[in-house]
Design a protein that fits this description.
Largest sheet: 2 strands, antiparallel
Radius of gyration: 32 Å
Strand order of the largest sheet: 1-2
Oligomer: single chain
Length: 327
């Protein structure tokens, strides 16, 4: 015999079924696929909370409802605050996955501007101006004021702010290295260390030679000899960009604040932005008697303590270039 349910039991069963349906809808809205049909970059501003971020997610069509997202996040989401930065949200990402990404549980979309060691400031400015996601303008900073490195930035950030981070990094690094300098460095001030390090940076492409080149130039400075560094000839002409041709005799003989073929001592300023290793080399130079160097054809140099030895090295270098058809 089929028994009829009483009114109370029927209502309870209906409420249970309704509750199960609501729970399913509630969970599907959290774990089910989201509305975005393509991968999207999304930025969380510094200090932004869940309310602001949820509203931005809804505006960009990444979630269906900001209020529903906030409710589900509080009931079903993991503990932890939102991270500032620019994130890559996959197509159809669920609300649960979006929150996890914005909490830093998955990778941040890092936008970087890279300043290689030895990049002159005129080209630093060009790199910053060429970044379409940065805003505002920036003047060419002084050479030697920027620390070569890769710097993350956010979409819409000002170029001036990114440049300030580069310069702050140089100030901090220089202060750290200066405090640990060797007693025999010729640099009398941190600025002199940067000026000499810029020459070392431009004069050798081999990291293993930096301390040796620094030692050689330190010896020349102590003896009052001309440094005779070719990059110091080029800097007043191009502001550090490649010359693209041979140096002219008139340029070798030019008198200015940088050309170390016509002046004793250091140039009046840095000729590029040296990296940390070149600054360290100047503050901890190799113990050497070398006073001369010439290219050896492998990207490095032959070092000599006497002019006679140096002239033989130069002759070998010219013979090598002639054999290669470069002369």
């Amino acid at each position: 015999m089929i028994r009829r349910l009483g009114p109370l039991r029927s209502a309870a069963l209906a409420a249970l079924l309704l509750g199960l349906l609501y729970a399913g809808w509630f969970l599907d809205g959290w774990y089910g696929p989201g509305p975005a049909d393509k991968e999207t970059a999304f930025q969380v501003p510094e200090g932004a909370g869940l309310t602001v971020v949820a509203a931005r997610l809804e505006e960009q069509g990444l979630i269906g409802s900001a209020s529903a997202f906030r409710l589900r996040a509080r009931l079903l989401g993991s503990a932890g605050g939102l991270k500032a930065g620019e994130f890559s949200l996959p197509a159809n990402a669920s609300a649960a996955r979006i929150l996890a990404i914005l909490q830093g549980q998955e990778g941040v979309l890092r936008r970087l501007v890279t300043i290689p060691e030895g990049l002159p400031s005129i080209m630093v400015q060009e790199r910053l101006m060429a970044q379409p996601l940065l805003t505002g303008t920036v003047a060419v900073p002084p050479d030697g004021s920027v620390l070569p490195d890769s710097y993350a930035f956010q979409r819409g950030e000002s170029r001036a702010a990114v440049l300030q981070r580069m310069q702050t990094a140089m100030d901090r690094t220089l202060a750290e290295l200066w405090d640990k300098r060797a007693h025999d460095t010729v640099a009398k001030t941190p600025q002199e260390a940067v000026i000499l390090a810029a020459i070392v940076e431009k004069e050798t492409g081999k990291p293993s030679e930096r301390r040796m080149v620094a030692g050689l130039y330190s010896n020349r400075l102590r003896k009052g000899m001309l440094l005779q560094a070719d990059p110091t000839i080029i800097y007043p002409i191009t502001r550090g960009k490649p010359l693209g041709r041979r140096i002219r005799q008139s340029e070798i003989q030019a008198v200015n604040g940088y050309n170390t073929y016509t002046m004793v001592g250091l140039p009046r300023g840095a000729i590029t932005n040296p990296g940390r290793d070149s600054i360290e080399a100047v503050l901890h130079p190799a113990q050497t008697n070398a006073l001369y160097m010439v290219a050896d054809g492998t990207g490095g140099h032959q070092f000599a303590t006497t002019l006679e030895e140096h002239n033989r090295n130069v002759a070998r270098w010219f013979a090598l270039r002639k054999a290669k058809g470069e002369l």
